[in-house]
Each structure stands twice: as structure tokens, then as C-alpha cells.
From TrEMBL, chain A:
Record GO terms (molecular function): transmembrane transporter activity
Assigned GO CC terms: ATP-binding cassette (ABC) transporter complex
Membrane topology: Multi-pass membrane protein
InterPro entries: AA_ABC_transptr_permease_3TM (IPR010065), ArtM/GltK/GlnP/TcyL/YhdX-like (IPR043429), MetI-like (IPR000515), MetI-like_sf (IPR035906)
UniProt name for this protein: Arginine ABC transporter permease protein ArtM
Residue ranges annotated for the ABC transmembrane type-1 domain, each copy included: 27-224
Native source species: Marinobacter flavimaris
UniProt keyword Transmembrane helix, yes or no: yes
Primary localisation category: membrane
SUPFAM superfamilies per UniProt: MetI-like
Record-stated family: Belongs to the binding-protein-dependent transport system permease family. HisMQ subfamily.
From TrEMBL, chain B:
Species name: Marinobacter flavimaris
Coiled-coil stretches noted in the UniProt entry, renumbered to this chain: none
The protein's name in its UniProt record: ABC transporter permease
GO cellular component terms, semicolon-separated: ATP-binding cassette (ABC) transporter complex
CDD domains: TM_PBP2
Molecular function GO terms recorded: transmembrane transporter activity
Highest taxon listed in the record's lineage: Bacteria
InterPro entries per the UniProt record, alphabetical: AA_ABC_transptr_permease_3TM, ABC_transp_permease_HisMQ, MetI-like, MetI-like_sf
TM segment ranges: 15-39, 51-73, 93-114, 198-219
NCBIfam families: HEQRo_perm_3TM (TIGR01726)
UniProt similarity note: Belongs to the binding-protein-dependent transport system permease family. HisMQ subfamily.
Record GO biological process: amino acid transport
Keyword presence, RNA-binding: no
Length: 240, 234
């Protein structure tokens, strides 16, 4: 089998070991970018979602505004504003921040994180406010304070309800990350665009990369399905 | 007042391109969604298989990759076709694949897949008793579809349809990447030329925000109208 692949690669003009390596590097960049923005986004979203459910409008209002702005505008515009905008801030070029934001990777990471955090905040908020009242009353009856109630009752039960919607958000983020190639990041799509312009072979370049994304998507779908059955184990019918 | 440095009219034209693109893609995606949903619910195994492959493929691939494939690949395919037509029939046929057409086709195809799922769910939500009653009245299949299924399923489809529309609207921004001069493209050029990114991108962001907010209100109103005869519990 490896001989067969080697022979095929030798005969093929486009899929040489070099372009395969380019795709591989692109895949690493995509996974890196998406993974980091999802993890940071989730860490930001949990406290924001809790603030969003607070009754005081001065607390929940700003969070609402943030999620509204980031969910109501295209991610591409957010990326452009951050990518082009950061360089324009007075004096940033003299600070150490410039070392970080000069690379296109970090502005893209910031844009993706802010975007996914906004969507995730709303997902978690939806799950928090649909916590059955009885669960909270029971926690209160046991004398749990607000913090303990949140940590032991509300958040775990909200996580179960949020996982389905969150899996959609993860896949959406993977697909949205393709626009990173617009700000000169060589992610999977960036690699495909480079290879397309070198060989003028749109089908080879883009269909291959589409298959890569599809493989990543199906891995994610599979992993989330496993996670969901794991989290909802206690709700499975006894004889099911 | 906001000074757009003479880019105002170009931005305005760009906004119109965005809106045209969004509506044409919506029309295509609704048509594809109706066909896809009918195929998924039909008895034919082949139709079901094709529709399922279509929705699975679309959901696995990023919109931008799809768009690049259609834009660059579409032109190569058309060139091959016109070579073939010239060689066999000696007819000079050429067709320039422009970014607007590729944008409409790609966005229409992508959201057609999402609409398929929305409409499938909505069709299933129509009570079987209604369809049986239509059959008992001697309605043909087409009549049942047009008079019974379509009006009743629209009510169930509306929330999903509205969501898809909101996402579609934001997806149109991607067409600026393949070179269509929509408002994002104009803003990008202006921002680069004037070195004022905030000055041009933030107004464009607010146009999108206004469009999504406006659609939200319109969908709410439609939803209210569609549910006017429905008695809700609670």
C-alpha cells in the first residue's frame, strides 16, 4: 500500500510530498487557531452568561450589548476591524503588544475568540435560564449559597442542556476559521489558495481541502455525540 | 456628520449589491430547500439518497471553500465546456463566471441544505389527519401540497427560516473575498487607501446590524400573522 501511494504521488504533479506538507501545516494552523479560540471563548463565556442572567440591567445590559453586536455583524468585518484597526492605535507600535499583534495569527485569534464567546454566552444563558425551578429550590432547601448552587447544580445541569447547541457552534467556528486565510494566515484554506494559484488547478486544490474540512467536521460530530451520550447517561431508558 | 471621504456613493452601491445578493440567494435556497425536503420525505430511495448526500456534503465544508471552488472551478468548467462546444459543434460560446453569480449559487446551495432540514421538520409537523382529509376530498398530490401542506408548514418553518436568513445575510460578506464590490469590499479598499479602518468598517458593521435587527422585527411580525388562528396553551 505505501508503495502504491508513493508511486501515485510520484506521478501526480500537484499532490507531491511538498504540497501535502503544505496542507498538513495548514491543518495544524487551523486546528491550533480554532482550538485556542474555542477554549478561551468558552472560559470567557461562562462568567458572561452568568452575568447575563443577573436581574440588574446595569450588569446584564453590557453583556447583552456585546453579544448583540458580535452576533449581528459578520465575522469577516470583526476580523477586518481588529486586524487593520489594531495597527492604527496610537503608540501601539512602541509597546510590547506590537510584538504580539504584528503577526496576523493573534488578531485573528482575538476576533474568533470574541465572536465565539458571544454566541457561546447566549447558548449557556439559554441553558441556565431553563434550569428547572425545583432543582434550585431543592438546592436552597439544602442551605446552599448562591456560589455553591451555581457550581454544583445550575452549571452542571446547564452544561448538559447546552452541549447540543455548543457542538453546532464548534463546527460553525471550524468552518468560519476559513476566513483567516484572508488576512494572510496560511491555514487549510490558505494552503489551498496558494496551491491553486501555483498550479491553476481549482478542483484539485479546493476539493482536497474540502475533504480535509469534512474529515475534521465528522470527527467533531462523532466526539460530541459520544460526549452527549456520556453526559445524558442517567437519562437513558433503563431497558433502552 | 460622518465624513466618508467621497466613498459614500460607492458604499451605498455596495450595500445594494449586498441586499440583491442576499435576496437572490434566499430565493434559490428556498427553492432548493423545498425540493430537498420533498426528496427527503419521498418514497424514492434514490431521491432520499441524493438529498441526504447533498445536505451532508454542504454541512461538512466551510462556505468560503465552497465559494472559492465555485468561483475558480466554475470558470474552468465553463471554459472546458466552451472548448468542447467549439470542437464538436463549432459554435462560439463563452460565459464569464462573475463573482456575483458564484456568490448567489454558492450561498443558495449552502442555505438550500439548511432550508431542506427546516422544511423537512415543518412538513412533518403538519398533522397527518389534514393530509388524509385532503385525500378524502379527492385532492391530487399537487393540490394537497399547494393547498394543505404549504400553507400549514410555513407556520412551523418560519422560525427556522428566519434564523437561516439572519445567518445568510452575514454570509454575504464573504463574497467580497472573491472580488465582488459589495459594501465590505468598498470599505476594505477605502480603509486601506485612507488608513482609517474604524472609520469605514464600523459604519458597514452598523448597516449589517440594522439589516439583521430589521429582519428580526419583520420575522416577528410574520410569525404573529402566521400564528393568528392558533390557540396556544398556557
Amino acid at each position: 500500500m505505501p508503495d502504491f501511494i508513493a508511486e501515485w504521488l510520484n506521478q501526480n504533479e500537484i499532490f507531491t510530498a511538498m504540497t501535502i506538507m503544505e496542507y498538513w501545516d495548514g491543518m495544524v494552523t487551523t486546528v491550533h487557531l480554532v482550538f485556542l479560540s474555542l477554549v478561551i471563548g468558552l472560559l470567557v463565556a461562562v462568567p458572561l452568561a452568568i452575568l447575563r442572567t443577573v436581574r440588574n440591567p446595569f450588569v446584564s445590559g453590557p453583556v447583552w450589548l456585546y453579544t448583540y453586536l458580535f452576533r449581528g455583524t459578520p465575522l469577516l468585518i470583526q476580523l477586518y476591524i481588529i486586524y487593520y484597526g489594531l495597527a492604527q492605535i496610537e503608540g501601539i507600535q512602541e509597546t510590547f503588544w506590537w510584538e504580539i499583534f504584528r503577526e496576523p495569527f493573534y488578531p485573528a485569534l482575538l476576533a474568533f475568540t470574541l465572536n465565539t464567546a458571544a454566541y457561546t454566552t447566549e447558548i449557556i444563558r439559554g441553558a441556565i435560564i431553563s434550569t428547572p425551578n425545583g432543582e434550585i429550590e431543592a438546592a436552597k432547601a439544602y442551605g446552599m449559597n448562591w456560589f455553591m448552587r451555581m457550581r454544583r447544580i445550575v452549571l452542571p445541569s446547564a452544561a448538559r442542556r447546552a452541549v447540543q447547541a455548543y457542538s453546532n457552534e464548534v463546527i460553525f467556528m471550524l468552518h468560519a476559521s476559513a476566513i483567516a486565510s484572508v488576512v494572510t494566515i496560511v491555514d487549510l484554506t490558505g494552503a489551498a489558495r496558494n496551491i491553486y494559484s501555483r498550479f491553476y488547478a481549482p478542483f484539485d486544490a479546493f476539493i482536497f481541502v474540502a475533504l480535509c474540512y469534512m474529515a475534521l467536521t465528522f470527527i467533531l460530530v462523532f466526539a460530541f455525540r459520544k460526549l452527549e451520550t456520556h453526559l445524558l447517561k442517567h437519562q437513558r431508558p433503563v431497558n433502552g | 456628520m460622518l465624513d466618508l471621504k467621497g466613498y459614500g456613493p460607492a458604499l451605498m452601491d455596495g450595500a445594494i449589491v449586498t441586499i440583491e445578493l442576499a435576496f437572490l440567494s434566499l430565493a434559490l435556497s428556498v427553492a432548493l430547500g423545498l425540493i430537498g425536503a420533498s426528496a427527503k420525505l419521498s418514497q424514492s430511495r434514490v431521491a432520499k439518497g441524493i438529498a441526504t448526500t447533498y445536505t451532508t456534503l454542504i454541512r461538512g465544508v466551510p462556505d468560503l471553500v465552497m465559494m472559492l471552488l465555485f468561483y475558480y472551478g466554475g470558470q474552468v468548467a465553463v471554459n472546458m465546456l466552451s472548448d468542447y462546444i467549439w470542437e464538436t459543434y463549432e459554435i462560439d460560446f463563452f460565459f464569464q463566471f462573475d463573482p456575483f453569480i458564484s456568490g448567489v449559487v454558492t450561498i443558495g446551495l449552502i442555505f438550500g441544505a439548511y432550508m431542506t432540514e427546516t422544511f423537512r421538520g415543518a412538513f412533518l409537523a403538519v398533522e397527518t389527519g389534514q393530509i388524509e382529509a385532503a385525500r378524502a376530498y379527492g385532492f391530487t398530490r399537487f393540490h394537497t401540497f399547494r393547498r394543505i401542506m404549504l400553507p400549514q408548514m410555513l407556520r412551523h418553518a418560519l422560525p427556522g427560516l428566519g434564523n437561516n436568513w439572519q445567518v445568510l445575510l452575514k454570509t454575504t460578506a464573504l463574497v467580497s473575498i472573491i472580488g465582488l464590490t459589495d459594501m465590505v469590499r468598498v470599505a476594505e479598499e477605502a480603509a486601506k487607501a485612507e488608513r482609517m479602518p474604524f472609520h469605514f468598517f464600523i459604519p458597514v458593521a452598523f448597516v449589517y446590524l440594522a439589516l439583521t435587527a430589521g429582519s428580526e422585527l419583520f420575522i416577528k411580525w410574520l410569525d404573529k400573522r402566521a400564528n393568528v388562528g392558533v390557540v396556544q396553551g398556557g
